[in-house]
Every structure is written in structure tokens, then in C-alpha cells.
Fold each of these.
Amino acid sequence: MPTYEYQCNNCGYIFETFQSIKELPLKKCPRCNKDTVKRLISGGAGLIFKGTGFYLTDYKRKPPKQENKTSEVKPKEEKSEKKLGDKSTGDKK
């Protein structure tokens, strides 16, 4: 619901109120009880989004990772060579 700002032309009282867009503007001042209230024109606060999911980066798709087959194979080969080297030396303490 939007917030509207009003000012009484009789006493000068300025106040804000939450109203539905469909409601008619207020006419009676809450301070002096006279029908001299007018709605002020304001820039408003705009929309305020709270919580997650309102940023462009939240829905941005990440490019698929390119798998480099040679980088995956090399560590496996190095590990197997070390295991073979350890068995072939036969050093026992």
C-alpha cells in the first residue's frame, strides 16, 4: 500500500498515511477536525525490494565449465608413477 502525505490548510499540520490506491483522498484533519486537508504531490520512495532474488546476478546463467581432458589425465599418471617408483626402490626403514 502506498504512503500518502497530507497537509491541513487550516492548521498547517502535515501527516502521512497508508492508503489503498482505490481509496478516496482524506478530507478531515486528525488534529483540528476540519475538512481542509489536501493531498501533497510527492516524488514517492518508489519500489523497495527486500530479500533475495532481485538482482541481475541472481538469475544470471554461468557458462558451462570446459573440461580439459589432458589436465585430468596428467595427475592420475603422476600418482601411478610415484606408486610404482615407491615399490621398485624397495627402501625399508
Note: DSSP finds two helices and three strands in the chain.
Amino acid sequence: MLAVVKIAGQQFKVKAGDSLYVPHIDGKTGDSVEFTDVLMTDNGGSISSGSNVKAVVKAEIVNDLIKGDKVIAFKMKRRKGFRKKHGHRTQYTHIKVTAIA
């Protein structure tokens, strides 16, 4: 069974047993979470989408906080002596999909 689920404003295509990195969600390592905002399901060729979807994606948190790569934003105005450097690392959560019910 395949499902497209919306997690923190992003869409992910998941199957049972998939492991993926999603934007940071609350919880500790080992906690189970449910995602009810399922947009589409495919069960052996029968596709349901929109308001016909009655599925819930269940997942387990493998690692609660993972930092992404550092992103640098550098601003400069030539001949003015203006330089500004900002950087950030996006936080992710590593989850493993256990079931689509």
C-alpha cells in the first residue's frame, strides 16, 4: 500500500517500512506518531484521493533531532563596506513508517 501524506506542510510518498527525514516534530526517540492528513492512497491499483481517503499513517520516531547541512546567506553591497553573514541549520526528525491503516 502506498500513501501520500502531508507532514508539516510538505508532501511525502510513503510505504510501510520506509525511513525518511521530515521537518522537526515533537516527540522523543521511540515514540509513535500518527499522521491523519493523508492526501492519496493506492492499494493494489485502486486509487482513492480527496475526501474518499480514510487512512492513517503510523510511524515511529527513530531519532528526534538531526541537524541538516549549514546554509550560509551572505549579503554585500559593493564599495560601501557592508557585509553581513547569516547561517542556519534546519532541524529534522528521522521517522520510520510502521503501518498504513
Note: The mean pLDDT is 96.
Amino acid sequence: MAYKEKEIEKLYFSIGEVAEMFNVAPSLIRFWESEFDLIKPKKNRKGNRQFTKEDIDNVRTIYHLVKEKGFTLQGAKDMLRNDTQAVKDKMEMLDSLKRVRSFLLEMRDKLH
């Protein structure tokens, strides 16, 4: 009898993996780390950065503000200083609406 093994969830990601997720250079992630207190990856004994899912969510927030919304670094810092959670909540809402839109377009295409 076959059984499905529980998938092991990865706890830490390298800077290269994080950069690849956002299609940016690792140097940009390092730069944002120096500019934003929000990004604080742990470092292992070798000094390599180890990003958690929370760190990646924080990078996603900064990416959204700077790359998608066109904020300057100072503008993004100001937004985050005022209310980080509100920015994250708005991003989640936008992601949710994008998924609903995608679903509706898919349904429309199936009906035609």
C-alpha cells in the first residue's frame, strides 16, 4: 500500500535563491538589506545569508513598492515606517484579486 510522504518544507533559502524568485541580482538583495531594517537574514558560520519565509515576504514587500509601484527607496522606507502591516495587507488583497481575476478569465474562456 502506497502512502504519501509529507513534503519537507524548506526553512532557509540562499541569497541566490531569493534573487532568482524575484528575477533580480543578488547584489540588489544585499543592497536592500543594507537599506531596509525589515530584511534581516541570519548568517551561518561561513557568513552566508539564510533567508526565512518571513524574510522573503519582507523582500516581496520592498520589491512591490520599489519595482512594481515605482517608489524611491526613501518613499518605500516612509511607507514602511508609517504602517508596514497596512502595506502587506494591501499586497495580499491585490494578490487575491489577481487570483480571482485569473480564475474568472479562465472560466470565461472555457464557456466560449
Note: DSSP finds four helices and two strands in the chain.
Amino acid sequence: MKTYTLDEMKDEFIGKIGTPERDKFEQDLKEELQAYHIGEAIKQARLAKNLTQEQLGEKIGVQKSQISRLEKGKSITLSSLMRLFSAMEIPLTLDMGGIGKISLC
């Protein structure tokens, strides 16, 4: 029985590196991973503030299920991030390089 590497499997089923299908797959995967990390950061910040999902939801006017989705990296928008960070009193600042920093809270 022959074994295959992950790269060989991706080449076979998604497409070789540089093809539009593979590029889209890699970009989608990168975005999903970033969303996951943002969700984990939200969860860790909530836990550090000793808040339940329900309590945080009440602070920003959403149900517990929406907080759960955000912590899983789903349905994340800039607006929801701003509300979450504001409710948890976490400064949200973006470094815009040569033009300076922008505070979103």
C-alpha cells in the first residue's frame, strides 16, 4: 500500500500550487485560521474578565449563542469586535504604518 503526503493529496484533489483552485483553497484556509485565532482571543479575553458567554452577550445586546459563534471564529465583523472590546474595556488600536495608529474604541 502506497502512502501519500498531505502535499501530494492536495495536488491530486485540489490542484497543484499556482492553480486558481489551489490558490483559492490556500486563501480560504488562511482566512479560516485567522478567524479561529480571533475567536480564541475573544474567548481568552472573556475568561480573563471572568465573564460567562451569557454575561458578555447581555453587555453587548446579543444572545449567548452569538458569543459562542464569535468564539468559534464565525460571524466576526469589525462592528462586533468593536462592541466586544468596548464591553470588556480592551483598547482596540490598529497600527496603520507610516500614517499612524487608529483607535476603534
Note: The chain has five helices and two strands.
